[in-house]
Amino acid sequence: MRFFDAHSHIHGKEFDSDRSEVLARMRAAEVSTITVGTYLESSRQAVALAESEPDVWATIGLHPTDTDEPFDEKEFRKLAEHKKVVGIGECGLDYFWEKDEQKRKIQRENFSKQIELSISLNKPLMVHGRPSKGSMDAYEDALGILNARYPMPGAIPSGNIHFFVGGRDIAKKFLDLGFTMSFTGVVTFARDYDEVIRYIPLESILSETDCPYVAPAPYRGKRNEPAYVTEVVKAISSIKKLPVETVSERLLANACRVFGLN
Predict the structure, then answer these.
(1) pLDDT digits (tens, 9 = 90+) for 97-125
(2) Were both Cys, which of 91, 124, 169, 175 would link to 61 (CB 3.0–4.6 Å)?
(3) Edge-to-edge order in the sheet of strand 3-8
(4) Residue 203's pLDDT band (cuts 50, 70, 90)
(5) Is the pTM for the entire model greater than 0.70?
(6) How far, in whole angstroms, is CA 209 from its chain's centroid?
(7) pLDDT at residue number 151
(8) Separation CA 95–CA 107 (nearest Å)
(9) Cα 170–chain centre separation
């Protein structure tokens, strides 16, 4: 494979009618992917798909706003022990959609539990962070949880901040903890993240689609899919002023390093 989609949802219902064709296009584009669970049944589906496909891996977790179900540590631990499960999450904080402070507190508690699971299993985090409009509040709280609970050097789990929307200051704080940050098709049609992409070292960047959402140019308005991550890599290459081959090789190596892929 030449390209890596570090965050997709190809186990989801949006792909039920043509998943085999989507996977065929993915392979034709020389792409591999991680399909990301967002609640217990979704995580089971992600693991089942990863088990059946050699170039698909899974992460399992409880998304902050996709469900109101409680975090079932016992069941998630069972899933996490599968050899194709390479991380914990999608977990984290979403203050953009959730305004109620009591529900935000539950998000923080669930995030903490999933951090603990990731450490106990030595598997990295796949972190969702979406701040309130005009704020970095969800990122600041996520960083606070990581630093407060695991202050010892080396104790904080590595992982990836998916669909990163922060600036240089927030990026530096995550870099200091050893996290990578991944970018989506948004970077193909908006210039909002050019500065932070130039700032983050190439070895700390991943590419993703977050499919079926946010299709890149020239596919805007269509259902997104892993094959389209090539457009994200091209955009990052352009912003970094580096050859596409150099960037694709580095981002693939980054994903292998963070998630222990072989």
Answers:
(1) 999 999 999 999 999 999 999 999 999 99
(2) 91
(3) 3-8, 31-36, 56-60, 85-94, 125-130, 159-162, 180-183, 205-207
(4) very high
(5) yes
(6) 9
(7) 59
(8) 9
(9) 17
User: Is residue 58 within 8 Å of 45, Cβ to Cβ?
Assistant: no
> Does the pLDDT value for residue 155 go beyond 80?
no
**Token pair of 208 as six digits:** 């993703």
SS3 annotation, the chain: CCEEEEEECCCCHHHCCCHHHHHHHHHHCCEEEEEECCCHHHHHHHHHHHHHCCCEEEEECCCCCCCCCCCCHHHHHHHHCCCCEEEEEEEEEECCCCCCHHHHHHHHHHHHHHHHHHHHHCCCEEEEEECCCCCCHHHHHHHHHHHHHCCCCCCCCCEEEECCCCCHHHHHHHHHCCCEEEECHHHHCCCCCHHHHHHCCHHHEEECCCCCCCCCCCCCCCCCCHHHHHHHHHHHHHHHCCCHHHHHHHHHHHHHHHHCCC
